[in-house]
Amino acid sequence: MPFHIPKIYITGTVKLLLFPLFCFVSCTEEAEIQTYYIAPEYTGPVVAWKLPPTWGENPELSGPMAGSFHVKTNSGPQGRIGVMPFREAVSTLAITNMFGMELGYEKFTEDTLPHVLTTKTVGQKKFEWIHLTEKNNPNDPKMALLAVFRQQDETWLFPFVANAALINQEMDSFISFLDSTTVRAGEKIIRAPRPISAAPTSKPSGSPTWDAPDHWVVGQASSVRIASYSVSDENGNELDFSITSFPGDVGGLQSNVNRWLTQIELPKAESLESSPYLSPYKIDEKDAYLLLAENTEKTIYGALLFGKSRSWFFKIMGDTTLAKVEKENFLNLLSSVCFHDH
C-alpha cells in the first residue's frame, strides 16, 4: 500500500534542514532511501496537512495562497478551498468583509460581526468559525465557510467557498482536513507594513508615493492596506479610498474586476474586452486598467496594476453623488503615483 507524505509549505527564505524522504518502489525492486538537506536555521512559518480522498490539489497557486484545493465530483472539480498564511494578526472583521462583500453582504461592523461568527474546537486547535451564505440567491446559494486559526502574531485562514450543498456534503472532510493541519509560526515575528499616511515610514519593497487631496481624511491602515482615506460631505454621504498590494496577481484581472462589480450589485463581466466599465490605463507609465462603475446609489472607481511580483489596487467606493464630485480628485491622485524605479 503506498505511503503518502503530507506536503509541507515553507513561506519565506529557505536555507538548509535535514529532511529524510523515503521512496517506496515495487516488490521487484530494492527500496531506496534518499536524504535531502535543508538548513536548520530556517525560522519562518510552516504548514502541513493531509488531504481528504475526495479532494484534489490545484497545480497553480496565486496571490497569498500556500495551498489550493477542490472537491472531486462527477461533474468535475468543484469549490475553492485554500490555505492562506498572513504575516501578522489580521482582524476577524477584515477577513469577514473580504469574503462577505463578494456574497452580497453590507460591510460588517463590530456590532454585526457576532451574527456570523462562532468558535469551533477541532482536535487540539481552536478556530474562529465564520459562516456566510450568499444573499439574494435562495435556489442555489454560494457559501463561504472560513476557519481562522491564530498562533502567536500570525494568522492562518482556511476558506471553503462553494455552493451550500457541496459544503454540507464535505463538512466532515473539511473538519478532518483542519484537524490534520500542523502550523509552526516563525520564531521571528514578521509584520506586514502598516503605513497610515501618504508618506508612511514602512512600506513593501517598491511601494509608490502619491499626493492625496487635502480634504481626504487619513484613516487607519489594515494588514492589507498600504493607505486608507475617507471622504464625506455635509449630507452624510461617504467614500472609502484604499491602496492595497498583494504578492502575485491575486486571481488576475477578471476575477478582481468581477469581485468589485458585485460589491455594488452590478453583473459580472463575461468578457473584459466588451465591458463598458474597464479601459486600459497608465500609472507612472506602467500598463494598468481603470474601472469606472456605478449604479444609482453606489460607485466604484478603481485602478488595477499587475507588476512582475506584486499587484497594486487603487479603489474608491461609496455614495454615487459624492463619487462624481470626487472623480477628478481620484484621477489626479492616480496621476501623481510614482514608483521611483526608473
In short:
The chain has five helices and 19 strands. It is α+β, with helices and mostly antiparallel strands.
Strand order of the largest sheet: 5-6-7-11-10-9-8
Structural class: alpha+beta
Write down the overall geometry. Answer: globular
The arrangement of helices and strands along the chain is EEEEEEEHEEEEHHEEEEHEEEEH
Rg computed from alpha carbons, rounded to a whole number of angstroms = 22 Å
Low-confidence stretches: 1-29, 33-44, 187-202
Report, as a whole number of angstroms, the end-to-end distance: 57 Å
CATH architecture of the largest domain: 3-Layer(aba) Sandwich
* Tally of individual domains: 2
What does this molecule look like?
With 342 residues, this protein is of the alpha+beta class. It has helices at residues 92-100, 164-169, 171-180, 252-263, 320-336, and strands at 8-10, 18-23, 32-37, 46-48, 55-57, 67-73, 76-86, 117-122, 125-133, 142-151, 154-163, 182-184, 217-218, 225-232, 238-247, 278-283, 286-294, 298-306, 310-319. The chain has 2 domains: 49-184, 3-Layer(aba) Sandwich (Protein Transport Mog1p, Chain A); 217-336, Mog1/PsbP, alpha/beta/alpha sandwich (Protein Transport Mog1p, Chain A). The longest helix has 17 residues, at 320-336. The protein is globular, with a radius of gyration of 22 Å. Residues 1-29, 33-44 and 187-202 have low confidence and may be disordered.
